């Protein structure tokens, strides 16, 4: 866990079927964490299917890293309500990044791996990890845990550290 493995760009695209935490709706935002780093999206008022389309950046240092996210309902006069959480192992993404260097995929779009929903992840439907013009990208829907419903769509891009080929 010393040298950075790359820059991880996490785009929080949207939420779907989030739970109601206020009278008729919620004011959701997402906190994404990787290791000791965390970042937060803006609050979307009165929406159960919000679109954030916000890019958050992290330094990836651990090859066994797990990305975690929590969704909250912003409240004005009391503590924010929890709207669920999810985790995603980054190990498949890191493996594809290494494979890309071995097979020398650099242009066009090539799907190199699929991640299926199972008990070890919060993936809600099949997710692909592709090499798109030399960049490793994963598009994924995560099912929120500890709530009745809700999913979050992410696009995750792993960018090599400077000076790496």
UniProtKB/TrEMBL annotation:
Keyword Nucleus found: yes
Matches recorded under PROSITE patterns: C2
Molecular function via GO: GTPase activator activity; lipid binding; metal ion binding
Family membership: Belongs to the plant CAR protein family.
Main localization category: membrane
CC per GO annotation: nucleus; plasma membrane
Stored SMART domains: C2
Database matches in CDD domains: C2_ArfGAP
Alphabetical list of InterPro entries matching this protein: C2_dom, C2_domain_sf, CAR1-11
Name assigned to this protein: C2 domain-containing protein
BP term (GO), one: abscisic acid-activated signaling pathway
Localisation per UniProt entry: Cell membrane; Nucleus
Chain ranges of the C2 domain: 1-103
Extent of the signal sequence: none
Alphabetical UniProt keywords: Abscisic acid signaling pathway, Calcium, Cell membrane, GTPase activation, Lipid-binding, Membrane, Metal-binding, Nucleus
The organism's place on the tree of life at top rank: Eukaryota
The UniProt record lists the keyword Manganese: no
Gene3D superfamilies: C2 domain (2.60.40.150)
């Amino acid at each position: 866990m010393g040298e950075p493995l790359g820059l991880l760009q996490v785009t929080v695209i949207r939420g779907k079927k989030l739970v109601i935490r206020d009278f008729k709706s919620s004011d959701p935002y997402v906190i994404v964490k990787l290791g000791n780093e965390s970042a937060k999206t803006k609050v979307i008022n009165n929406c159960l299917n919000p679109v954030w389309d916000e890019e958050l950046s992290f330094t990836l240092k651990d090859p066994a890293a797990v990305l975690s996210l929590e969704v909250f309902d912003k409240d004005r006069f009391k503590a924010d309500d929890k709207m669920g959480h999810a985790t995603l192992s980054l190990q498949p993404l890191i493996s594809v990044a290494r494979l890309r260097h071995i097979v020398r995929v650099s242009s066009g779009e090539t799907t190199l791996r699929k991640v299926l929903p199972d008990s070890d992840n919060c993936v809600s439907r099949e997710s692909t990890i592709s090499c798109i013009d030399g960049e490793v990208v994963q598009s994924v829907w995560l099912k929120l845990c500890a709530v009745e419903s809700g999913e979050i769509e992410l696009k995750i891009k792993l960018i090599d550290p400077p000076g790496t080929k």
